[in-house]
Amino acid sequence: MTDEIAALTYVKKIAQFSFKKKEDIDEIVRIKLREALKEAVVNCGFYKNRETLSSSQFLSKEDVRNNIHAGMISLKYVDHPGLVFDRTSGSAGDTVPYAYLGGFHRYARMVFPFLINSDWKWRDKYCVFTTVHCSKDRCSTDNLPHFVDRVKIPTSDDIFMDRDALDRASAILRENQGTVVHADPFYLCAVASYLDVKGSCLAFKGISSTYELLTPYIKRYLERTFQCRVFDSYGCSEFGSIAFGCEQDGKHIFEDSVFVEIVDKGRYLDGEVGEIVVTSLENSAMPLIRYRTGDLGKLITSPCGCGRTAKMIEIYGRDSQCVSFKGVLYTERDMAWAMDIPGVLLYQLIQSGSSLAFNILLEKGYADNDKQNKIEREIKNKFMGSEAAHISVTFVNHIRPENSGKFKSVIREALNLSN
User: Fold this and answer.
1) pTM as predicted
2) CA-closest candidate to residue 168, choices 206, 194, 142
3) Which residues of 197-211 are buried (b: 16+ CB within 10 A; e: fewer)?
């Protein structure tokens, strides 16, 4: 069997698995979870004396940094020629190293939502426009199967202000209209805003949003500018794709590939929200068992209109980007819904003690004083009931990404949780 046939078989299996009866999925997951734990304990010295599936023990990013070459790589694969080493972007602090066997699995999970949400076909070209971390080849994003036809769009560490990068990205996207674009929504938003000002628009089969939280405003803006549907998936570098966006905008977990838990609930505005903890069911080369992602989410128990029975998850952003009001943590998602205000394309909130400072990037057509004053009043009215002693609003012409390449919608300069 060739790699491509194996990949197509794997995609078909993903599709069928997500429609299985819930009890059948649960039983398969239980079996794979037991096998993954056994494999880790037998072949990885790090796990041998670790009660990894106990209710209180988790794998931290620091654990991985300190032990990747001290018992985390399986003895079965430590000298395997297909072993790939990589690092995360470092959006939550220092980068985290990880390893996996190269092949088609990550690619197949990534393009699965292309297949179900657009008329993209296997072997069709697609474009990738992600963070500067990947654009500048600081990670091994080129480790792809030979049958992949991908156009990688270079970016910039100040994409909103770099006219050359915007011109270059716009030209490449124009040359590749009619494809699917797999993108960080904030980087693509910069290009959309640039085209919008120029009175230009492009058309694609679909936009697969990933890497950062997709806000409702940006989703609508991208759909209007690029004349296609935007669908949202969730993943992280260490695991690849974890959940795929479906036709009804649900995010279904790849339950045959990862086991997802939600822990530390009760600290956030929504009591069911907690940290996303993931166990790999496929990466036997470097098993990650009960790994704390630093991302927030909650499991959705209601049925999905698409008919799939695989569990769903809603993403609430990163734990490091919560805002504290009166002792309650408001997540990135809570803030994104509150900031869904006409004209507010992007925002960055800086919380310093009891002061809130909003940097606002406006959509074209909202630059006059009356509209800006209205937006400022609406923001202040929404947050006046918080503990903030001072609220300021500044209209800016760009928001710069962090060194990791990710945009931060919330920056906590001083966070007091004792209120």
Assistant:
1) 0.93
2) 194
3) eeeeebebbbbbbbb
